[in-house]
Design goal:
The complex is a heterodimer of chains A (about 425) and B (about 325).
Chain A lengths: L82 H26 L13 H10 L5 E3 L5 H6 L4 H9 L32 H14 L6 E6 L6 H12 L4 E7 L2 E2 L2 E2 L21 E5 L3 H16 L5 E6 L29 H11 L5 H24 L23 H11 L2
Parallel strand pairs in A: 1-2, 2-3, 3-7, 6-7
Antiparallel strand pairs in A: 4-5
Chain B lengths: L1 E2 L2 H15 L3 E5 L15 H5 L4 E3 L4 H14 L2 E5 L10 H8 L2 H4 L9 E6 L14 H5 L5 E3 L4 H13 L4 E6 L25 E2 L12 E4 L4 E5 L3 H12 L3 E5 L2 E3 L3 H11 L2 E8 L4 H13 L8 E5 L9 H4 L3 H13 L1
The chains are: A alpha/beta (about 425), B alpha/beta (about 325).
């Protein structure tokens, strides 16, 4: 039978067609967010932290928002933070952005090989760090530098890692920004995607085994929800009711692949929680107050032995994935500027102004102060060397492969040293 | 001392360590209430409670991912992968995470995990219950790889592995769980009760990782092997009439190079035997080490006797398994050179 003669009828199935997702707009087109459903701020109730999961199934499909379009905090999720805390949060977010901007420039100057900014996502890391206890253990991905900054970790130490210089505690072994700080409760960033999520669950299980009070939190991006590690983490967290918060930072883009390639066209990422019986909260990731409130809720739940929570932080990656890609090649150039949920720093700033606790003059002064602080730290960091300028002792590469150096590595070390 | 088979010795090692160190936890598929499909964890949950010995979801990547997190917290996880053949979903967590964590964090974080996995064939397990993947792990910087050949060593090595602050892959040749199988599958198996290495102290003792044992001293040739093949090689030596020394490596990485070099330099002839496949296998590394360190002492080309480079064929198990006849032929070849 030729194709021409084939009749389409109720009992003749159509030819199958493969669906390949396509984002709403590509370069040269106007950004299109018409398909996003953005409910007003303040409409969702705040359930008690011990609410059973089946009663929470509205949240994965909603969007918890506190700051409304007039920059007022509204609704049950308003954490009612003191203005001093809000100002401190603004400071840490602005410091994160200032640091990012400066370090990108440093990379462009050839002083290091690589950088990743978190522009537009500062509220995710900073507000979540505020909502957790300083002793809680963090298993970040590579775009939560704000966690370290909010825990007041020295920028100088971060810069020395970025430069792989003589003060780099990681001894020049890691790509820039793959920080590690046991003291800050900040787990070594892998650079592999998603592996830290089941590790966060394991840490939380250990804390429960030991009857500790500390909880764990892990972060992955929307794209990484497609990895098996996400599924492992969800399953183990649910099975053992681990005291852990699993965060999916949905910043819309995984390098050049929009979140549709991780399954975001069909359901929200927070909705992945329902099949596991884990509460799923979906929050405006650019709303400092909402991010703080949901994280606080999830932390309280975990601390009371009520198990894990999955949080989808709905945000937008305003900068490139890294210094190795140009977003103009795959998305409209002004898409970030048109993001309907705005900019997290600007929104908290406007909220503080609305509260008469802040003004443009103070903001300008703070911006200048932070820029000077970053520049001063940078000057000191550069005095310890930039990438390649101060050679790390080459035989140090054989240390820490094992706790004690085995004979074969000792032989190789001697060979490298020429004796 | 007590008479133990390898399963009982492995169970005893974990029992001893759980009693000595409350940071030791054990988990894996079916290891808790049931005590493991090979019974290696039998009775431990009842004795130590189900938050220290527990069952897991069927997710090897999750088992080892959570084990790493527990190790970072400060526990000493002993995770069972039910069959070594099932370890591949966890490969990323082992290679990119467990093995490199200490290195990439400048020594700040590490995960002292022990991964137990029954390996090897000869049990009619087909291609998904018979593999010997140990060579893959020796190629990963930051992992230690161990394979015992008898109950006494299994207990001492497992205790050392659990106490080790680095991640240790602990492969258990399941064909010798119950007795020293010599490759003659058509004859009755001698139980461990009739073997000196089946006499095992009930308490604590360690066998240091990285130290080989001479299973049989000899003068004419050196056989380098480990696991089940130790017993196959001992039988082959007996049947060939060659006075060969048989080295049981016990730890593949770090390997006991001194023991190898001392023996091969003395005998001048070397046969390397493992059950795993040939090409790119651990035997190639051993062969290269012997060539690098003993070349001027060699009287004959180094021989390798291994599994064939095919998946493990169920019905053709005994054509695949490198038995004593193949080892004996290799011994004769090196003697004739």
């Amino acid at each position: 039978m030729t194709r021409k003669k084939r009749q389409q009828s109720a009992d003749t199935p159509p030819h199958l067609q493969l669906h390949v997702p396509e984002p709403a707009a590509r370069p040269g087109q106007a950004p299109d967010f018409s398909k996003l459903e953005i409910p007003p701020a303040g409409v969702l109730p705040q359930p008690p932290v011990d609410a059973p999961e089946p009663e929470l199934r509205v949240f994965p499909f909603g969007l918890i928002r506190v700051l409304d379009d007039a920059h007022q905090a509204v609704g049950a999720w308003d954490p009612q933070l003191p203005v001093a805390t809000l100002r401190e949060g603004l400071r840490h977010m602005l410091l994160t952005r200032t640091f990012d901007d400066r370090m990108l420039r440093v990379q462009r100057q050839g002083k290091t090989s690589f950088y990743m900014k978190s522009t537009g996502e500062e509220a995710v890391a900073v507000a979540q760090a505020y909502a957790l206890d300083p002793k809680d253990m963090l298993f970040p991905s590579y775009r939560q530098q704000g966690l370290l900054i909010a825990r007041n970790w020295p920028l100088l130490d971060m810069m020395c890692q970025i430069f792989n210089n003589s003060r780099d505690r990681l001894k020049g072994r890691q790509l820039p920004i793959m920080y590690s700080s046991k003291e800050a409760g900040f787990f070594s960033i892998s650079g592999n995607l998603g592996t830290q999520l089941p590790q966060a669950v394991g840490w939380a299980m250990a804390s429960a085994i030991r009857h500790d009070t500390r909880i764990a939190a892990g972060w992955i991006g929307d794209g990484t929800t497609a990895e098996a590690d996400f599924h492992y983490a969800m399953t183990f967290a649910a099975v053992y009711q681990a005291p852990v918060i699993l965060n999916v930072v949905n910043n819309q883009w995984a390098i050049s692949s929009f979140q549709g390639f991780a399954g975001g066209e069909r359901a929200t990422f927070a909705a992945r929680a329902i099949g596991s019986g884990i509460p799923g909260l979906r929050v405006d990731g650019n709303d400092f107050l909402a991010v703080y409130a949901v994280t606080r809720w999830a932390a309280a739940r975990a601390r009371r032995n009520l198990g894990p929570t999955l949080i989808e932080l709905f945000t937008y990656r305003a900068a490139a994935h890294s210094t190795s890609d140009d977003p103009a090649a795959y998305r409209p150039q002004d898409e970030g500027a048109k993001w309907p949920l705005g900019d997290p720093i600007e929104r908290l700033k406007q909220h503080l102004i609305k509260l008469k606790a802040w003004d443009e003059k103070r903001h300008a002064e703070l911006t200048k102060e932070l820029d000077e602080k970053v520049k001063a730290d940078l000057k000191e960091a550069e005095s310890y060397g930039t990438l390649g300028s101060v050679p790390v002792a080459p035989d140090s590469m054989f240390e820490d492969v094992f706790k004690d150096m085995p004979p074969h590595l000792e032989r190789q070390r001697r060979e490298l040293l020429g004796n | 001392m007590a008479s133990m088979n390898m399963i009982q010795a492995i169970n005893s090692a974990m029992d001893v360590m759980m009693a000595r160190d409350d940071s030791v936890v054990i988990f894996g598929e079916d290891v808790g209430y049931f005590g493991g499909v090979f019974r290696c964890t039998a009775g431990l949950q009842k004795k130590y409670g189900k938050t220290r010995v527990f069952d897991t979801p069927i997710a090897e990547g999750g088992i080892l991912g959570t084990a790493i997190g527990m190790g970072v917290y400060g526990l000493r996880p002993v995770a069972e992968i039910q069959f070594a053949d099932y370890i591949y979903p966890a490969f990323d967590q082992l290679v990119s995470e467990a093995a490199r964590l200490r290195y990439r964090s400048g020594g700040e974080f590490w995960a002292p995990i022990t991964v137990r996995a029954p390996c090897g064939g000869g049990i009619f397990g087909g291609q998904t219950h018979s593999q010997s993947p140990e060579g893959i792990f020796t190629h990963v910087c930051g992992l230690k790889t161990v394979m015992p050949s008898n109950p006494y060593d299994a207990k001492g090595l497992l205790i050392a592995a659990i106490e080790d602050d680095d991640p240790v892959m602990f492969f258990e040749p399941k064909r010798i769980y119950n007795g020293p199988f010599d490759g003659h599958h058509d004859r009755p198996l001698t139980p461990w009760a009739k073997h000196p290495a089946g006499e095992v102290p009930e308490g604590y003792y360690r066998i240091e990782l990285g130290k080989a044992a001479v299973a049989r001293p000899g003068t004419q040739a050196t056989v380098i092997t480990y696991g089940t093949m130790v017993h196959v090689c001992l039988k082959a030596v007996e049947e060939s009439g060659v006075d060969a020394e048989v080295i049981d490596l016990r730890t593949l990485l770090p390997v006991d190079l001194d023991c190898i070099v001392e023996s091969v330099s003395r005998t001048g002839r070397c046969v390397i035997v493992h059950e795993a496949t040939h090409t790119g296998g651990y035997g190639a590394e051993l062969s290269a080490l012997v060539q690098e360190h003993c070349f001027w002492h060699l009287e004959a080309p180094i021989e390798r006797v291994t599994g064939w480079d095919t998946p493990y064929p169920h019905a053709l198990e005994w054509a695949y398994f490198p038995g004593p006849d193949r080892v004996a032929k290799a011994l004769k070849r090196v003697m004739e050179s």
